[in-house]
Each structure stands twice: as structure tokens, then as C-alpha cells.
Write a structure and sequence with these properties.
alpha/beta; 13 helices; 8-stranded parallel barrel; two-stranded antiparallel ribbon; TIM Barrel
Length: about 325
Amino acid sequence: MTSLTGIGYVAGRVISLMEKRVLGKTGMEVSILGFGGAEIGFRQVDAETVAQLLNKALDAGLTVIDTAASYAGSESLIGQTVSHRRKDFYLFTKCGQGGDFGTPDWSAETIEKSIDRSLQRLKTDVLDLVQLHTCSAEVLRKGEAIAALQKARDAGKTRFIGYSGDSQNALYAIECGAFDTLQTSVNIADQECVELTLPIAQERGIGVIAKRPVANVAWLFDEESSKNAYHYTYLKRLQELQYPFLSTPEAFATALRFTLSLPVQTAIVGTTKPERWQQNAAILAQGRLSEAQMQEIRGRWQTVAPPEWIGQG
């Protein structure tokens, strides 16, 4: 088992919504939780609710808003509701994974168009981070997609460039040396990264953004209605992992605190409920999990998880 102290774990350390962590070599001091824009787009949340949701998040101390070109109307909603507070947050988006341009396309032309469109929708002159959205290592090796991001950075359209993805693709993204950040799945049902990519990212100064930090709360769903759902893989894994805490009222809090106890700088949490930030603040006040709790979750994973349980995009 990888030593917890060897990956930056400090037992029981207090966390708060106001806490800031430096996102690797970018130097951006990001909030421990960031807002994930997928749900407001895919669920077609109305602008009034999004305005309330995002303004409460910013007022609570969140400084990261993360979205993507492919998250339906998410970018437009964010631009419409909080662009007037642009100096209060770091703005991250992703390109290449479908969106208005159809199927995934990693050509330089499409990436450039996607970034220009994101700037317009988000009503900003410059993005803080543009990430390639789950493309393969094969695509990265060709160089065209990376060069397109570098061109956008050189043109002042984005300050930093990153990769969003998992497993061996994420490992290559770190090792190629082109990216400032890695956004990857980190949670109780997705722990391949704890040994595969997080230590190397930490060693090389790559900022880590945790996506799906509460495993899509998959334990709350029944199998029959979940077979074609995004969270189904996690549901099946959790059925085998059988963490005792999942049957308690502390399940959500324990799952989130597990992710935040690992060497990540910010965890992207999606929600459509404005009151969620006060609830998350109460969770963070409990601090990191104890070393015993961490070892129990990690030990269960290493006992049960087969090699094919790789990171989920």
C-alpha cells in the first residue's frame, strides 16, 4: 500500500471552504471546493436559479468554476449570471469533447473554434485554464491538439492549459510535460489514480483537480434504474466494496472528506441546490479523515478492486 504520508496526507487536519491551495506550478490559489457546471447545463436549470447558486458559492469563498464546451448550456448560463464577478473566481473550461461541433474532434481548427466560442459564451476576454477533454494518449502523441492549446495560450486566450482524463491517458499527459494541470477522477469508487498518477503529478508540480469527488453518490441509486446511467459503474463497484459507512448518514461527508484528504488542490462539486454550500462547509469543518479511516477505505479497495477497475472518464 502506498504510504499515506508519502502522498501528502495529514491526519485530521481541519479544512474550510475558505481554505486555498496552490494549483501546482500555475500558482493559482484555488478554493478547496470548486463548482462543476455539468449539472446546470444537462438539467437545463433556469438562469435565476443558477445566479442564486453561483453567487452563493462565490460569497461562501469558492474561487473555481469549471465547465466544458460539451455541457449543454452550461457555459452560457455561467456567462449570463456571474460574468460581472469575473475577478472573484478562476474560470476553467474544456474543449474537444463534442459540444455544438458534434462528435469528439481533436483537430487544431475545431479546438480553436471551441475556445473562441467558450470565450464568447462565458463573456470573458481570457480563460484561466483550458483543458483537453478526455482524449486518448494516441491523440496526445500526434501533437496537434496540444499545439492548438499552446497556440491559444500564446495568443492570450488562456493563461494555462490542462488535461482532463484518467488512467494511462492521464499518466501520459503528465509525463509528456505539456500540461499545467490534471483533472482526474478521485473518489471512494475510483482509486487507481492514488498510486498511478497523483504521486507523479505531485512530484512534477502538476496541479490536480479532482472530478467526481463523491462518486456521483452512486450508492443512493438502485441497480435496475441505473443500468444506462453515468453512475452505474460506480454503483457496481460500491456493491462489491461494501464500505460500512455507506449505510450511515455520514456517507456523503465521508466520501468527500476521503477525496479531500488526498493530494488534490480542488475538488469539483456539481449541484443545482443553492443551499449545498452551507452543507459542504459543515462537512469540511470535520477535517480530513483519520489515518485509520483512510487506511480502511484504501485497504478495502486494494483487497477488492481488480486491475480492470481503471479511472472513469
